[in-house]
Amino acid sequence: MRVVSDASLNDDLGYPVVIGANARSEVAAFARKEGRETFVLYDANRFVAATARGVAKAARAKALIPFPLGERRKRLATVERVLDAMLAAGAERDALVIGVGGGVASDLFGFACAIYMRGVRYAHVATTLVAMVDAAIGGKTGVNLGDGKNLAGSFADPAGVFCDVAALRTLGQSALREGLAEVVKAAIIEGGDFFDWLEELSPHPFARWPWTTLVAESVKVKTMSVADDRLESGARQVLNLGHTFAHGIERASRYRITHGAAVALGLRAAGLLALRSGRFSEAEHLRVLTLLALLRLPLHGPIDGDAVLAAMSHDKKKRAGRQRFVLPRAIGDVEYGVECSPASVRAVLRRLQKAPSARG
Ligand SMILES: NC(=O)c1ccc[n+]([C@@H]2O[C@H](COP(=O)([O-])OP(=O)(O)OC[C@H]3O[C@@H](n4cnc5c(N)ncnc54)[C@H](O)[C@@H]3O)[C@@H](O)[C@H]2O)c1
Ligand SMILES: [Zn+2]
After folding, report:
1. Where do the domains of the chain lie?
2. Do the Cβ atoms of 9 and 226 come closer than 8 Å?
3. Pick the CATH number of 2-170 from 3.30.70.980, 3.40.50.620, 3.40.50.1970, 2.40.50.140
4. For residue 158, how far is its CA from the centre of ligand 1 (angstroms)?
5. pTM score, whole prediction
6. pLDDT tens digits, residue range 60-82?
7. How many Å lie between the centroid of ligand 2 and the Cα of residue 247?
């Protein structure tokens, strides 16, 4: 088990993020230190259940409660079920609740704990790559409303996050790829050794990847951006690289295109848009595309440009009629708040219908 080594990183965030292959003993130590009555909630998936049982035993939990989750159950109705179950189990205002599962679990349990008796301490044991590198870190919690994702929720920092990289062994390749799209995003933001290293890893089978280090590097990027934003510098916006396009693409496809696939397409689109305005070099754009392709993330698809454009205009980042984008200037140098004309966005969306040419 490795604690993200830079102590100030955890200080900035205000809670520990622990990454390694033995979540149990780390959670046990954490729960002992907290000294509170502990309740464990988990995503009722058989692989998650095994981890949750270990966590509950190690933390001497008073109750271990499963909930069938999945994106379709990420709703207020499920939150109510969780709240009722916590009440029935006897959780009081000073309890410690530990959730086990992926991003749906961290968003939903985190939100339930933010409102249960006006807030109880919540720690998350992340069992998917998406939860480890993205969802469980940063304090955004919530559920879906109607057709819209994450429309009800709250900012609520966890008491601690435990990334159980051993759990990745049972995660399917497509679920891993969902997380890898965010890892590539983080590597473009960070650049340098992180990006080079990911390029070196990419041809190798996942079983041989050093996941602890990879998750730690990705968490560092998210942590730095989130912590910087506490100073209201707006730095958190860099994490939206590729995401203005991604959200439009997902929504226009009625979520048939997954978030990870949409992020990969969005990263290509951001690169193309940056190329058009002379901000980014073709060589670096092609490096990004090559990495995405080696990870078998999509670079083109049946994109309905008008529908995507319409869906994008709902996005929060639009101001005074012109869309603002997060664009790469180089690998390791990403700027935000860049205004682009609808015509250039439309041209980029047309390119996404076709596989990349030698020029991206
Ligand atoms: N709050 C944020 O900042 C933030 C950021 C990114 C994503 N999210 C949210 O995260 C969610 C997506 O997260 P996700 O991809 O982890 O989805 P998920 O939690 O639904 O997990 C994906 C699937 O994997 C299963 N699973 C979980 N752990 C497993 C394991 N170790 N082995 C085998 N199967 C396992 C789950 O039961 C589920 O079927 C979305 O709802 C998204 O909105 C939130
Ligand atoms: Zn994302």
Report:
1. 2-170, 173-351
2. no
3. 3.40.50.1970
4. 17
5. 0.95
6. 999 999 999 999 999 999 999 99
7. 9
